[in-house]
Please model this.
Amino acid sequence: MVNRYYRKGYKVERKAMRYMKKYFGCVCIRSAGSKSPIDLICGNGVNVYAVQVKSGKTLPKIDWRELERYAFYFKAIPLVLYKPDYRDFVEIWSKSDLSKVRKYYCR
Model:
């Protein structure tokens, strides 16, 4: 039996893949069950993105340094796509963006 948190994560990752295709023209590969900081590897022929997908009322802990390290191996741009409940995705491009998003969405 698949647990509900896995199912929720799967759905949000699929939405993130559609988001990356729509707004960045990317094709994505999902890294299911890898336990790495990268959930999706997306590319559009120009750029490669190492994407971590998060969702929920509050933004969970993100190890930005680890995300950057993994992105480096793929020569990718690190990106966190956060999906707050009942809102569209929020793009987080840097550690400073991360703190701004925490202040705004996680009160």
